[in-house]
Specification:
5-stranded parallel sheet, single chain, about 290 residues, mainly beta, 15-stranded parallel sheet
Length: about 290
């Protein structure tokens, strides 16, 4: 049968392990206080949920294809000591806390979209040993996502701090129109894998190293600038920057674009780009501001 209970552990307790077989786990009493690692195990299309009144550390867990919901109420952290594995084609995995960090950096295998929510200047980090699909993400701190290919649902990413996307030999596809990435965005991958980013506010690109696929940056309501160099692998695809009615300033002297560079904006907004080596311009349509290529 399903596991449903309220639990209180003494300080510095041992692991709390819940094995439900082909059934649900619902440990959502707001008075729960797990001070040891919490391991959650079930199978099938059965949901798993756990709530802790304080910080929660997840132990090695293997769950079925239902949803996974972890909540730490108040200003408390969500961490892990062991990997989290969802069955194939699982539901959404949601991690929610208040003013605390979320640190899920083991070699996890999330097969459903991952929602991450916290507040304040508290960082959020998630790692997947395989492909990762980000769901709705909202954080007042920095976001770091690492996997082999990173995509997103329509939920959108709202990040007050920096965003670092490490996709290994996989694509980066973050094209939801509602993305609002305030801090510098670093995009890193390798191989012939495309990188696409859409941001609904001004876009600041951080130090980025991408493979030989195409690079596309769409800043729908703000300028495109950078704080670090952009580097493409040899013989890369086109690098396209679309800024709408805003400026484009890609003037870091370490930039190395090996594919055609297309620059697009409108209005009385300047466009400038610098390359440490040769640069080949692709089809570009710019406004009535200045155009500077170095």
């Amino acid at each position: 049968s399903d596991v449903c209970s309220s639990d209180l552990q003494a300080a510095s307790a041992g692991a709390a392990t819940f094995n439900a077989g082909g059934n649900a786990i619902a440990l959502t009493n707001t008075g729960n206080d797990f001070t040891g690692d919490v391991s959650l195990n079930n199978s099938g299309a059965n949901n798993v949920s756990v709530t802790d009144a304080n910080a929660i550390q997840l132990g090695t867990s293997s769950v079925g294809s239902g949803t996974l919901t972890v909540t730490a109420t108040g200003a408390n952290a969500i961490t892990q000591s062991g990997t989290i594995t969802q069955a194939a084609s699982a539901g959404v995995a949601s991690f929610t806390t208040g003013g605390g960090a979320i640190t899920l950096t083991r070699n996890n295998d999330f097969t459903g979209a991952v929602n991450l929510t916290n507040t304040g200047a508290n960082n959020v980090s998630v790692t997947d040993a395989n492909a990762l699909q980000l769901g709705t993400v909202s954080t007042g701190g920095n976001l770091t996502a690492s996997a082999v290919g990173i995509t997103q649902t329509a939920g959108g990413l709202t990040v007050a701090g920096t965003t670092t996307i490490n996709a290994g030999a996989g694509v980066i596809t973050l094209t939801t129109a509602g993305n609002a990435l305030t801090g510098a965005v670093s995009l890193n991958n390798s191989g012939a894998n495309n990188v696409s980013l859409t941001n609904s506010i001004a876009t600041v690109l951080g130090t980025s190293s991408v493979g030989s696929g195409k690079l596309t940056v769409n800043s729908t309501s703000g300028q495109i600038t950078q704080t670090g160099a952009l580097t493409q692998a040899a013989s890369a695809g086109a690098a396209t920057f679309n800024a709408g009615g805003n400026a484009i300033a890609l003037t870091n002297t370490g930039n190395d674009f090996t594919g055609d560079v297309s620059l697009n904006n409108s209005g009385a907004n300047n466009v400038s780009v610098t390359d440490a080596n040769a640069i080949q311009l692709g089809t570009s349509s710019v406004g009535s501001g200045t155009l500077t290529v170095t």
